[in-house]
Design a protein that fits this description.
By secondary structure, the protein is mainly alpha-helical. It has seven helices and two strands.
């Protein structure tokens, strides 16, 4: 069960990024954020640890395989632009400077829209929403969570639009 949920989460990450890539702004040169990529791994490892505490994974799903899957998901996300920032943003991120007020507003809007869409979403999104609602998100974790949630919302909106 853990294995299938992990696979579903990885696949959901991949499918959500199609919409995100299409929305990238051509403003200034974008770079891959090492800060966001590192935080993604920390966040997803915490999600997996939480899942493992609730249900033992099958024997073939070793910690090494889980780590490999997370690395693969991170690479796909990197290729699809989830970690893209401007050079100036990345410098701010490296210095620990994040726009918590703007990210909180974006998160509120994304949670609201996702609720209105009543679309299913992967477990890692539920974890991010729960952490947001309990006040545990700020800084880099909030920046990452809002990017992931916006990608899920964009994909859900695209699916709803296709059905019309």
């Amino acid at each position: 069960m853990l294995y299938s949920r992990l696979m579903c989460a990885a696949l959901a990450l991949l499918s959500c990024l199609a919409a995100l890539s299409a929305e990238e702004q051509p403003a200034s040169k974008k770079v891959d954020s090492a800060v966001l990529e590192k935080e993604f791994m920390v966040f997803m490892e915490a999600v997996v640890a939480d899942m493992k505490s609730k249900e033992k994974p099958p024997p073939e799903m070793t910690d090494e395989k889980i780590k490999q899957k997370l690395n693969e998901a991170a690479q796909v996300l990197k290729n699809d632009g989830l970690f893209k920032t401007t050079v100036a943003q990345e410098e701010q991120f490296k210095n620990g400077t994040f726009d918590n007020a703007a990210n909180t507003a974006r998160m509120q809007q994304s949670v609201k829209v996702l609720g209105e869409l009543q679309a299913p979403f992967p477990g890692y999104v539920a974890t991010a929403i729960e952490q947001y609602q309990t006040g545990k998100l700020n800084g880099v974790r909030l920046e990452l969570a809002v990017r992931m949630l916006e990608a899920v919302v964009a994909r859900a909106q695209a699916v709803v639009k296709e059905k019309k």
